[in-house]
Design a protein that fits this description.
single chain, 469 residues, mainly alpha, 16 helices
């Protein structure tokens, strides 16, 4: 009996060979640099602040990175249509390397933030191009193996990121940590230019025009205004900058809705009266609510509880480890159970925030780790089914945009979440806080302040899971 090649089992030997191994290495290196970045920087951040100052700007280290990722990620698909994968991926790697080197030699936090923005542009581009390369450089039957390798690497970054960051802080300097990752990006760029030959896909004329750079600029400006409002919290300045930020974000949504040819978001995004709008609102607000731990957790743990940089990094890494573990455990659940897994997962995330209100300020550190891991388990329990249910409830003409909008909205939530965390922390004097009492107040404010946003996410979740598919 003749076996259909497409239906035959795919072994690792089919991808770890002369034809595909170098392509797999290319994709994995691109994902690795982006996946490990946030955990490495979070681990090194207490040492960075101790040397060059800039406590009031801590939130910007995450916010600007996410802004860069949003711009690069949203533009990558159209860039790949025009220029193929090879050249844009090399440019992204060089941009990431430049950002790392600027951060490595930064004399002030302001200069380091320029580097973080470039790292975000490069890292977002590398990740997007890596996933595009998965579809263009491998036959369809090998895609599952490629994605399995990427998933394993993403999980490994949760373990290795804090280890690498902690090792540089303990045995060398945080500056060499940035140099180390910049060197990897330079090697990746050289590998793309010299070490691999892949077929380029020239523009076929089917693209939807140029990347919507004006809209992305408006969106990024809105995030920057929100972040700026938290540097020095005042009765007049903060509301003014927040209003300007939300005006730019509203302008982005208005303009995007009126450009059907290359819209970034589906119709009526964030409208809870529609299933997809409720899903996107849930993702946006939950990501805003959960950024406090990643942005300020290591700084608070080292200052309040005397935790080492390495241990603090691993507490934050518990989010990624819990996510990976839960996603594997629930991955085989049937579609009819999607609403239950989404509801349980999102409820666990909110419960973790409630737990951090007490544990971050009072300890012990192992309890903080428990709630960090609970957050990851919640996301891991829900995320696959959020994607699957969203697809089943999305109109046919918006299915394509859904794939791009979920990561864009996620990144927007992370960027706004870092900014909101900065507002909350600086509103109670984080920049000058030194005593345990002052730092404890910062910790409580940071997590109590986001609970109303988390409740909005829960309300949107209820709407999302109760709509009939």
């Amino acid at each position: 009996m003749k076996v259909n090649v497409e239906d035959a089992p795919v072994g690792w030997s089919e991808i770890l060979n002369r034809t595909y191994a170098s392509r797999l290495l290319l994709v994995c290196l691109g994902v690795w640099l982006h996946a490990a970045d946030s955990l490495i920087v979070a681990t090194m951040l207490p040492s960075v602040v101790a040397e060059i100052g800039g406590k009031a700007l801590v939130a910007w280290t995450s916010a600007l990175y996410e802004v860069g990722s949003i711009i690069a990620g949203a533009a990558s698909g159209l860039v790949a249509l025009k220029a193929g994968v090879r050249r844009p991926m090399a440019v992204a790697a060089l941009t990431f390397a430049t950002g790392c080197l600027i951060s490595a030699f930064a004399p002030t936090m302001g200069i380091l933030l320029v580097g973080r923005l470039l790292q975000g542009l490069g890292g977002g581009g590398l990740t997007a191009m890596s996933f595009i390369a998965t579809a263009t450089l491998f036959p369809g039957r090998l895609t599952a193996r490629v994605m399995a390798a990427i998933s394993a690497l993403w999980g490994a970054s949760a373990f290795l990121g804090p280890l690498i960051g902690g090792a540089f802080v303990t045995y060398s300097t945080w500056r060499m940590g940035f140099v180390f990752f910049g060197a990897q990006a330079l090697l990746l760029a050289a590998f793309v230019f010299l070490g691999i030959r892949v077929a380029e896909r020239p523009d076929t004329g089917n693209g939807n025009g140029s990347p919507p750079l004006l809209r992305l600029l408006i969106l990024s400006t809105g995030v920057v205004f929100v972040a700026y409002s938290g540097i020095e919290v005042t009765a007049t300045g903060t509301p003014a900058f927040l209003a300007a930020g939300f005006a730019f974000l509203a302008a982005f949504l208005w303009i995007d809705a009126r450009n059907p040819a290359n819209r970034l978001l589906p119709k009526r995004p964030f409208d809870p009266r529609t299933p997809l709008g409720a899903a996107l609102l849930m993702v946006l607000t939950m990501n805003i609510a959960t950024m406090g731990l990643t942005t300020y957790g290591p700084l608070l743990m080292t200052s309040l509880h005397g935790t080492s940089a390495l241990a603090a990094g691993y507490v934050v890494a518990g989010i990624a480890l819990g996510w990976t573990f839960a996603a594997i455990v629930v991955s085989g659940a049937p579609e009819r159970h999607d609403p239950y897994f989404i509801a349980v997962g999102m409820s666990l995330v909110v419960a973790s925030l409630v737990g951090l209100v007490y544990s971050m300020s009072n300890g012990p550190v192992w309890l903080i780790a428990v709630f960090a891991t609970m957050e990851g388990i919640g996301y891991g329990t829900a995320w696959t089914f959020i994607i699957r249910r969203s697809r089943s409830l999305t109109p046919a003409d918006d299915i394509e945009r859904l794939s791009g909008s979920l990561p864009t909205v996620s990144r927007l939530g992370f960027a706004l979440g870092a900014s909101v965390s900065g507002i909350l922390a600086n509103s109670v004097g984080f920049a000058d806080a030194a005593s345990p009492e002052q730092l404890g107040l910062v910790a409580r404010t940071l997590f109590v302040g986001v609970l109303p946003i988390a409740l909005i996410a829960l309300a949107a979740m209820v709407r999302f899971v109760t709509v009939r598919a």
